[in-house]
């Protein structure tokens, strides 16, 4: 009894359960061994969850080499179909809501563009009306003289001719007076001024008969 106790005393004390650092295993062989053990433990936990809680469980795992492993209760295919069918209504509703929001945004943009077009049309109409009023208010001096003369009646033409003859006489008298004043002062008249001021003979000569 004493010998057993002494042997036990000489035994190295246990370090207990050590915490393993979670990181990628560099050795390919060790990584494959770890995958096999962990996969079995993972499927065992899934089976226990299904039995203890009466839950439907499906698990799919791909190995580093790309091989697939699965566990399902009652089956992986049944649970996948159930999952996809239950997700379709929510997805459809989401897509429908997204379509409604897109249509609403397009309607808003159309309304803004329509308002801009209407405002542009209104500004153009106001500008055209303003230009038309300005054209109507333009004096006769801005109009085409030949077009105006062509639209005159014979009586209006005779009156215009009389006025032009009177203007011709006034201009000629003014030019003669300026020449006489220049001669009296003993200054030579400016040829350029005389030519510019004095109208050439017959320039304003109009016949009273049209």
UniProtKB/TrEMBL annotation:
It is found in: Nucleus. Residues 15-75 form the MADS-box domain. One of its GO terms (molecular function) is DNA-binding transcription factor activity, RNA polymerase II-specific. One of its GO terms (cellular component) is nucleus. It comes from the Eukaryota. The keyword Metal-binding does not apply. CDD domains: MADS_MEF2_like. Residues 103-137 form a coiled coil. One of its GO terms (biological process) is positive regulation of transcription by RNA polymerase II. Keywords: Coiled coil, DNA-binding, Nucleus, Transcription, Transcription regulation. PANTHER family: MADS BOX PROTEIN, OS02G0164450 PROTEIN. This is MADS-box domain-containing protein. The lineage of its organism: Eukaryota, Viridiplantae, Streptophyta, Embryophyta, Tracheophyta.
């Amino acid at each position: 009894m004493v010998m057993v106790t002494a042997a036990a005393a000489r035994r190295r004390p246990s370090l207990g359960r050590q915490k393993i650092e979670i990181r990628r295993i560099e050795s390919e062989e060790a990584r494959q061994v770890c995958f096999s053990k962990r996969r079995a433990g993972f499927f065992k936990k899934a089976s226990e969850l299904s039995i203890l809680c009466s839950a439907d469980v499906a698990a799919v795992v791909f190995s580093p080499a790309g091989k697939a492993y699965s566990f399902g209760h009652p089956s992986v295919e049944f649970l996948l179909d159930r999952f996809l069918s239950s997700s379709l209504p929510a997805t459809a509703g989401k897509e429908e809501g997204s379509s409604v929001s897109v249509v609403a945004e397009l309607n808003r943009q159309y309304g803004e563009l329509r308002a801009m077009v209407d405002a542009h049309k209104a500004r153009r109409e106001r500008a055209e009306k303003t230009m038309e009023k300005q054209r109507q208010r333009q004096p006769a001096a801005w109009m085409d003289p030949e077009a105006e003369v062509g639209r005159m009646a014979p009586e209006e033409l005779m009156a215009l001719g009389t006025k032009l003859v009177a203007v011709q006489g006034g201009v000629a008298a003014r030019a003669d007076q300026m020449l006489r004043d220049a001669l009296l002062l003993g200054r030579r008249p400016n040829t350029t001024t005389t030519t510019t001021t004095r109208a050439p003979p017959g320039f304003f000569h109009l016949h009273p008969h049209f």
